[in-house]
Amino acid sequence: MPILVMKFGGTSVADLDRIANAAEKVKREVERGYDVIVIVSAMSGKTNELVRWVNETSPFYDAREYDAVVSSGENVTAGLMALRLQEMGVSARSWQGWQVPINTTSAHGAARFESIPRENIDAKFAEGFKVAVVAGFQGLSPEGRITTLGRGGSDTTAVAFAAAFEAERCDIYTDVDGIYTTDPRITSKARKLDRISFEEMLELASLGAKVLQTRSVELAMRYKVRLRVLSSFDETDETSGTIVCDEEEIMESKVVSGVAHSRDEAKITLFTIEDRPGIAAAIFGPLADAGVNVDMIVQNISEKDYDDDHPGAVTDMTFSCPVDQVARAKKAMEEAKAGGKINYEELIIDTDVSKVSVVGIGMRSHAGVAAKMFQALSADNINIKVIATSEIKISVLIDRRYMELAVQTLHDAFGLDRAS
Amino acid sequence: MPILVMKFGGTSVADLDRIANAAEKVKREVERGYDVIVIVSAMSGKTNELVRWVNETSPFYDAREYDAVVSSGENVTAGLMALRLQEMGVSARSWQGWQVPINTTSAHGAARFESIPRENIDAKFAEGFKVAVVAGFQGLSPEGRITTLGRGGSDTTAVAFAAAFEAERCDIYTDVDGIYTTDPRITSKARKLDRISFEEMLELASLGAKVLQTRSVELAMRYKVRLRVLSSFDETDETSGTIVCDEEEIMESKVVSGVAHSRDEAKITLFTIEDRPGIAAAIFGPLADAGVNVDMIVQNISEKDYDDDHPGAVTDMTFSCPVDQVARAKKAMEEAKAGGKINYEELIIDTDVSKVSVVGIGMRSHAGVAAKMFQALSADNINIKVIATSEIKISVLIDRRYMELAVQTLHDAFGLDRAS
């Protein structure tokens, strides 16, 4: 039998009715001839409740016990889903991480997969079971303790199972009906994509299109797992949703596939710092230690003198990070300065910026995307504060009040409202 | 290190404050020099919620999945208790059934212990851990599935661990402060017992003194585990509560230790049935199949003729069962009659009776207990409907409206308000 992996997130299994609704979708795939592995999250809100209890019990908790507590929500959903399927006449069995077993590292709270042996589940399929309902987000450490994979771990569980079981596809059921050219709340011209490449999806996910966890897309790309994103709440068929797949499967790609945005960014400039080898490490080491997720980095070329005691070249260093990490970033920089590790004249913090990016694998072979982007923004008098580029993405930081306008303008400029 | 087992029921761990309170009691025992095994129930209400979800999802549920779902409540409490202890500076680790492992039979929903190997937990004690917090009520089947032990299974888990680890004592923390000579709500003269024998406790538990599950007392008796019942909510010390122990440990026992009652009983009489070998089996077989818990059984000696077609001795058969099983019992008897298995002239059902019993190991060597009991009841004009006796117990069925009076009268008659 071909194997299909289906994953249902927390809102898709939020109560017994929704579990029943998800079970209907599973049943339909069984009827189409698949052996199905269903990955479930906890009922929405449950994991948060457990996390709150842990935090209230022990603010600096032992991650082993954290994992033992918070993994229980998925176990409940897995059992209920198996029962619901049985009730509908589909032979199903639930699986907790240790029963499969889902072998992971010992990094509690952020464990990584080591291996997912197929024997136990394959044996059940051979017995005639049609569905294995697996509790997502959890695994088993070499020490025999329960681990969790960190937030969004259920997507990653689904992809890992699809890889291990050589599934025909991994369907991620969620509360949106696919991947869009941009956020439909910003422009009604946003259009659902039939297909998107892993690379583009990665850029979109990490840029704030929060449909799929970055890690799950990385894993899917590495093992060439065909992903499909589709809605739990709509009627769905074989053509629903968006397929995330290898670039080669996408025949004629547009130059730009989508416009992403990230609203709450901050821009931090270290004004006038010594321009010497090692200065970047001296800045970004402490930031990493403080848990600041630095995104864009720009270093100005400068020839001005540092100060009388330090003759030689100086520069300015600018980076961006999420607004809610500014306080930590500021503290880290001030401590690094106080400790003599770095020196700067001034720390300039702008917390009113957003990031807008255009993404597309077609960019690789098309010049002029950047020029077209800058021109379009300029025509609307939107000032660009920072620019960063990768092979398939161009991002700019702009004033937050222009964010929606910029997204709409770029969506139009690259013709994303028209099917290719 | 001597080992102590401490068990906390659902009301004792109902919220984070109560878990903290229970953890304080554990810490105190660690400070007294014990390695402690803590058995926890689910936070009160949690298991009921899970059971409700299972029933709503699948009325005729697969017991394997039922067990997978309902066992999760204990896992949460075990993790939270371990975290709380760590927070108080006590090195603790949580254990789910499969991690110990608690090996049971495959009888899902009502599994029985097969073995509890000590290695894993002993190894942790050897590493310096002081407390193992074990999720009660659950185990692992030979097939690698989660089992549950049935309601009240956490008491049984505690006793099984005390036996396996040769614990000095098994302390059952609950919402009462010990075992009383009778229900304190019925007479203020009820007195807490310092000690009671296993045998007496068994009779009291099965007679409706619902402090300890019958099965846990049976297990404790078999393995000679010293039990102590005490309150989670009071300040407790080494002399608190009631010790349940071997008869030999109780120096000078009173003739009668307690008066038990069971309010909602029913009395069913099969009037005029054929008195022949096998008639009892023909009656009580169908009742057992229908899940009726028959308690007292009385057969009248009778010489009257059955009917013209069946010359020979006839009799009346009377039995008691809980009121809420009367409908089932009636149906089973009517079907047996319709099927020709038994015959009776009339089914007489009295749902307005209660059972009152006096219990005491001293009865064995003292004649006249029954006479004293009947005399006391007679003096209050309480009519006895059915009598049943065992080696250490005499029970009577009486009209329900006399139940409180009977308990008070017997408590006085046997001098239970005075310490021995």
Automatic annotation (TrEMBL), chains A, B:
Residue intervals of the ACT domain: 268-356, 358-420
Binding site for ATP: K7, F8, G9, G10, T174, D175, Y180, R185, K210, V211
Enzyme class: transferase
GO molecular function term, any single one: ATP binding
Enzyme Commission designation: 2.7.2.4
Residues annotated to bind substrate: T47, E74
Metabolic or biological pathway: Amino-acid biosynthesis; L-lysine biosynthesis via DAP pathway; (S)-tetrahydrodipicolinate from L-aspartate: step 1/4; Amino-acid biosynthesis; L-threonine biosynthesis; L-threonine from L-aspartate: step 1/5; Amino-acid biosynthesis; L-methionine biosynthesis via de novo pathway; L-homoserine from L-aspartate: step 1/3
GO cellular component assignments: cytosol
Protein name per the record: Aspartokinase
Species this chain originates from: Pararhodobacter marinus
